[in-house]
Amino acid sequence: MFNIFKRSFSNSGFVKTALLTGVATIVKIITGFFINKIIAVFGGPSGLAVIGNFQNFISMITISSTGAIDSGIVKYTAEYSDDISKKNKIISAGLRIMLVCSLVLSIILLIFHSKISLAIIQTDKYANIFLLLGFTITFSALNIFLLSVLNGHKEMKKYVSVNIISSFIGLILTLILTYYFSIIGALYSLILNQSLAVLISLTFVIKAKWATRQLFFSQPNKESFIRLLKYSAMLITSALTGPTALLIIRNHIGSSISWDAAGYWEGVSRISSVYLMLITSSISIYYLPRMSELKSNSEIKKELFSSYKIVMPVVVILGAGIFVFKNFIIVVLFSDSFKPMKDLFAFQLIGDFLKIAAWLLSYLMVARAMTKIYITTEIIFNASFVVLSLLFINKYGILGVTYAYALNYLFYGVTMIFIFRGIIYDKN
């Protein structure tokens, strides 16, 4: 078995991508650690819960500002690598969609920033942060768009270089702004980092041989818009349903138990996000363009099983390490006031394992542009997560949300297996 794992490790493009993205991911983790520590020390568990709402909103807005076409750009840029005309039309259409969506959201944020602040975090104390987001959202969207173009061209070294440089800039911004402005400074750094990163990504794209004027400013056809808007529908669904589910659950915990309890769940969720970032960053960069370019079912199965042999043991090892050292991790990443969250780790980590196992299969839906099935499963399983959480929280307290998390991804994974079998054995 060790020889199988070793052979997969040495031959897999996934591993090469994981190694390339490793440094960028580590820097992101360091930045996230610093921000979490500041919020935990100054805001406590309840403060972390409120900031979680703010970050969910930023996630929704950032994805929506691109028109949620970044995965479509990656897929079709890779798929049309040998057809320059089609590739140019896709990227030109994507640029237009991104500009329209980001400008519309920018206007909304600039006009309603105070009301949005009240709705999202129950205070207008942070209204200026939403105002700044309105001014900078177009630059953030452009950065995501350019990174998608790099990813679609499989320019992994350039893609990773942009992320590494951006992460270092973000870390410096976080240190400076947090030192002078405390928690508000940390939030400002989250917004400004993506805006400044566009200068780095633009520099790398301009220097690429394939970056011609026609690539961005060709006249797109109707088909190009339709193809991208299918991805827009899929990813906007994810951008809205996922964070909305988290907002509902977090607010329910806050109102029915306490905001400290909501902070404990937010804390353990952030630990999951940090260590799974090592896996998901490589999946998102490598997997979509790779699955998009594979034509035969045998190639897809081979790539999938090879990735499972590498990814799942890593998830088990990381999860086991976190469970064993959870008390130490809580104190280092947060503070002593977060110690009650130690009871949440067991089923959270089981859920993480099931989540990654299901995600490897679900990326095939994105690669095949299976819009209706993707949207349906996203809505159903985010809704089921909310329903299960509310039921289990009412019966088991804060532990209930971790039971719901694990059970929901078990159901999701089983569904993905049936969908995958349908794709692979479809005679058409």
Structure at a glance:
This protein is mainly α and 428 residues long. The chain is built from 14 helices and no strands.
Note down, in words, how this protein is organized.
The chain is an all-alpha fold and 428 residues long. It has one domain (2-424). It contains 14 helices and no strands. The protein has helices spanning 2-11, 13-65, 70-79, 84-121, 127-152, 156-207, 213-217, 222-256, 259-293, 297-324, 326-333, 345-367, 371-396, 399-424. The longest helix has 53 residues, at 13-65. The chain is globular, with a radius of gyration of 21 Å. The two termini are 35 Å apart. Residues 1-11 have low confidence and may be disordered.
Largest sheet: number of strands, sense, barrel closure = none
Q: Give the overall form.
A: globular
Distance between the amino and carboxyl termini = 35 Å
- Count the helices. How many? 14
Strand content: under 5%
- How much is the average pLDDT? 81
How many distinct folded domains?
1
Tell me the number of strands: 0
Query: Based on helices, strands and strand pairing, what is the structural class?
Result: mainly alpha
Radius of gyration: 21 Å
Query: What are the secondary-structure elements, in order, as H or E?
Result: HHHHHHHHHHHHHH
Bin the helical content.
over 70%
Low-confidence stretches: 1-11
Give keywords.
428 residues, mainly alpha
Provide the fold topology:
Layout: H1 2-11, H2 13-65, H3 70-79, H4 84-121, H5 127-152, H6 156-207, H7 213-217, H8 222-256, H9 259-293, H10 297-324, H11 326-333, H12 345-367, H13 371-396, H14 399-424
